[in-house]
């Protein structure tokens, strides 16, 4: 009887999680920088003093627009605060979940700061691996874990391995292949086994260096390509021998800023078209998953195709939408926030609202039932 109750409870919990959704969006606003302060830029992002999931933008016509996300980080929130909210999502890779996290936003809003960070302010990538090592140590009595890291770049719809030794050599072309189990693989991609934090720091550094080879300015190229860090976890349950393999992808996306067709031509125009195409493909895929519509258009870009087995189903997705607080950027800021709202499936349309209300009451009932059950068992 107890087992029956337990499995019923587990089913309910899963349903609750399903309703809450496994797609989350965090917004992070960086501080005004020195140049902006000197130029007298206004801070156009306002936060509610008591709510940590809302913000308001004062647009150029002084009207206010409100946005809601799963969490909103303010300029004063540090890397530790950001990681505290991110940790439960990324560490679920150890329990066999596939996880994707993305940093989206205009160039200069802190995507790389959030993901990579710097030696004084390490970002999500490093903190995550550190935590995975700590947890695998902690669980070593019941689980054995092996961690592998790959790092690659998608530029103009071409995949480049960032961990190939001597990346000055022209690297062989990488393609996405479908495996017999129906998952996606990139044959030939380097997978480096990592055993501790030291290994990781070295690898991430060499990967970042490879990224800038061939470009006049590292920063320029990095804003026009997607950088993907993949952690593969192989787990073995030492009690029942069950084996798991799961992926965690941490993605620093290309800058989302719109480039005026008049300003650019040739190579630069082609680049921006590739970026637009892949970012909107990503938006379409996540929005389709969030609204639970039938067809998910994974095949529209290399990025979404490669991540196909890690997006959707019971996979977890987190998007950081990075914004600037400056009045000079308000147009791009509103674009990014609109993109993120759509991704979260919280666009307010009449049909959608109705569905949300009924889902909400179903969710409330479940919580009541769980509370009741809890009391009964006590
Ligand atoms: P992106 O990758 O989106 O182009 P960067 O991560 O390179 O942007 O950030 C641009 C600049 O702003 C960098 O100098 C970075 O250190 C700084 N910065 C970004 N976010 C923050 C933050 N939350 N706190 C302090 N400095 C930040
Ligand atoms: Mg960057």
TrEMBL record:
Residues 22-346 form the Kinesin motor domain. It comes from the Eukaryota. Transmembrane segments: none annotated. ATP binds at residues 105-112. Belongs to the TRAFAC class myosin-kinesin ATPase superfamily. Kinesin family. KIN-14 subfamily. This is Kinesin-like protein. The chain holds residues 118 to 495 of 783 of the full protein.
């Amino acid at each position: 009887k107890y087992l029956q109750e337990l499995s019923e409870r587990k089913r309910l919990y899963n349903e609750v999680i399903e309703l809450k959704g496994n797609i989350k969006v965090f917004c992070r606003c960086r501080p005004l920088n020195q140049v902006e302060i000197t130029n007298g830029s206004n801070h156009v992002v306002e936060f509610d003093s008591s709510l940590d999931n809302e913000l308001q933008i004062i647009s150029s016509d002084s009207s206010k627009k409100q946005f809601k996300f799963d969490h909103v980080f303010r300029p004063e929130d540090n890397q530790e605060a950001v990681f505290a909210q991110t940790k439960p999502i990324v560490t679920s890779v150890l329990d066999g979940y596939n996880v994707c996290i993305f940093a989206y936003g205009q160039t200069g809003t802190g995507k790389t700061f959030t993901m990579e960070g710097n030696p004084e302010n390490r970002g999500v990538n490093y903190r995550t691996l550190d935590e995975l090592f700590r947890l695998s140590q902690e669980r070593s009595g019941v689980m054995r874990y092996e961690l592998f890291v790959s790092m690659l770049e998608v530029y103009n719809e071409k995949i480049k391995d960032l961990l190939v030794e001597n990346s000055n050599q022209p690297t062989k072309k990488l393609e996405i292949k479908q495996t017999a189990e129906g998952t996606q693989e990139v044959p030939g991609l380097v997978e480096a086994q990592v055993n501790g934090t030291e290994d990781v720091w070295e690898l991430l550094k060499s990967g970042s260096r490879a990224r800038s080879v061939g470009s006049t300015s590292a920063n320029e190229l990095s804003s026009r390509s997607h950088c993907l860090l993949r952690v593969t976890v192989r787990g073995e349950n030492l009690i029942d021998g069950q084996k798991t393999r799961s992926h965690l992808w941490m993605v620093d996306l290309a800058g989302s800023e719109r480039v005026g067709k008049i300003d650019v031509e040739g190579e630069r125009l082609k680049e921006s078209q590739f970026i637009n195409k892949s970012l909107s493909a990503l938006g379409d895929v996540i929005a389709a998953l969030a609204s639970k519509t039938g067809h998910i258009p994974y095949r529209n870009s290399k990025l979404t195709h490669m991540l196909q087995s890690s997006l959707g189903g019971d996979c977890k997705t987190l998007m950081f939408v990075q914004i600037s607080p400056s009045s000079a950027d308000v147009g791009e800021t509103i674009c990014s926030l609109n993109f993120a709202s759509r991704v979260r499936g919280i666009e307010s349309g009449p049909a959608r609202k109705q569905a949300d209300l009924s889902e909400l009451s179903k969710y409330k009932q479940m919580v009541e039932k769980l509370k009741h059950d809890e009391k009964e068992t006590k």
